[in-house]
Write a structure and sequence with these properties.
Two copies of one chain form a homodimer. In chain A, 62% of the residues lie in helices and 11% in strands. With 128 residues, the first copy, chain A, is mostly helical. Chain A folds into two domains: 5-78, Winged helix-like DNA-binding domain superfamily/Winged helix DNA-binding domain (Arc Repressor Mutant, subunit A), CATH 1.10.10; 87-117. A three-stranded antiparallel beta sheet of chain A has the order 1-3-2. In chain A, helix 1 (8-15) runs antiparallel to helix 4 (45-58). Chain A starts with 7 loop residues before the first helix and ends in an 11-residue tail after the last helix. At the A-B interface, helix 1, helix 2 and helix 5 of A face helix 1, helix 2 and helix 5 of B. The structure holds a DNA duplex (30 and 30 nucleotides). Chains A, B: This is Helix-turn-helix transcriptional regulator. Chains A, B: Residues 1-94 form the HTH arsR-type domain. Chains A, B: It holds the Pfam family HTH_20.
Chain lengths: 128, 128
DNA sequence: TGTATAGTTAGCTTCATGGCTAACCAATTA
DNA sequence: TAATTGGTTAGCCATGAAGCTAACTATACA
């Protein structure tokens, strides 16, 4: 598990680049060699390798060299770690929305109570 | 909705910075002025404003100025858009795992069938 | 009207990122 | 053993990101 939280920086930074997102997407479908991964991209190999390296230091990708070919695979943990972050934020966000909604409901009820006391003023007024 | 997909670059880049993630987290709990947001950070205001601006152009945050105070709020759409990306990747990833598992099961069965033919070799061998 | 407050603009520095070429191993294969 | 293939290292360049200060605008308050 390690400290995934502190590496959110690197994970999000890694995913901020379209080339690297494409690599991740490709690796979701299964492992591949550096050459296979690089093929669809119009980019010099050393440049491409930098992307691989960024993905590796972020923990999103692991690789292993056997013979002269390096095989890359996705490391799901990091992806899940990032996804968790969103879910945590959403939890807070939704809790707030719930509270807000409750607040609005309360206002609404109060308004209705007031309206019940002064039925003549409940019709449309004007403007928004 | 617009083109959230093409702005994943900006969303992830925005979230790659701890200051900006903290701002997002703070805004999950409700809107706040620039000053309130900036307060916990030991950073010059212009520097901080850059972060706000990055968050705004990424679509994660919206702001509005009334009088001399600018109020910021979270724009959930962008967050959800980014979360969706993870879920899509996970879907592909899990589909692959399922296929892989099926493959492993197949191998296992084949092995068992082979083992049934040569029962003497099925005991422990050594090492991992 | 004068002063404090809340942001904003401009402009500077420093460092990281993303790209390139050229040259270089180290396995394979002929 | 020689040539090819797959990747790696080193080093360069241009751009952009993240921080700063100083000076400015515009609202609110006394």
């Amino acid at each position: 598990m390690a400290n995934q939280l502190s590496s959110l920086d690197q994970i999000f930074a890694a995913l901020a680049d379209p080339t690297r997102r494409a690599i991740v997407m490709r690796l979701c479908a299964g492992e591949a060699s550096v050459g296979e991964l690089a093929d669809p991209f119009d980019m010099a190999l050393p440049s491409f390798m930098k992307h691989i390296h960024v993905l590796e230091t972020s923990g999103l990708v692991q690789s292993e060299k056997s013979g002269r070919v390096r095989t890359c695979r996705l490391s799901a943990d990091a992806l899940v770690g990032a996804e968790d972050w969103f879910q945590q934020q959403r939890a807070v966000w939704e809790a707030r929305l719930d509270r807000f909604e409750a607040y609005v409901m309360k206002l609404k009820k109060e308004k209705e109570r007031t309206a019940a006391k002064r039925p003549s003023r409940t019709t449309k007024r004007k403007g928004s």
